[in-house]
Specification:
Elements: H1 5-57, H2 60-63, H3 71-96, H4 102-115, H5 119-131, H6 137-142, H7 164-169, E1 171-172, E2 175-176
Antiparallel strand pairs: 1-2
Helix pairs in contact: 1-3, 3-4, 3-5
Amino acid sequence: MAMPASVDIWQLLQAAGAIATAIGVGVAAFQLWMQKTQQRTDFEDRLTEQYRDIMAQLPLEALLEDRELDADRWRRALHTFYRYFDLTNEQIFLFRHDRISPDTWKNWKEGILQNLRRKAFRDAWSEIAAAMPDSFDELRTLVPPQPRTDALGRPKSQLGFVPHETLNNQAIGGDRMRTDDQ
């Protein structure tokens, strides 16, 4: 027995509706994915802009591999270094919480490691990390700070302080090392 033509059309319309719904759901999912990707890119771009603003405020010598800033320029740049370490700490945190893409993180991580190989950055990181031992946990995990020392291996500080654990553990000529306030 043959089916009436009206049933065939009704079934075709139902099938076409189901297909259209499935395509609509797929398009909507794709648009949501694209929107999320664009929002992440915009967010990453804002952080990159902050990085560029910070770097533009540093003296050129700080950006060169083995240049040491004179004490006055170094002290003036220290707040900018602080801002850099704060931004870097935030970038690491954001990556660990899936707020930035793996490709962006790979690029940023390479830059962080490259910057912290530069003498001025290493020195600033050592100073700030010693002055703020309970801060920058994410950055400390990636790049543990190294204490600054002079040519004889004694603690060196351009801020006029020596980390307290160094004072307690190091003796020079039988006496505790003197600080500015002794």
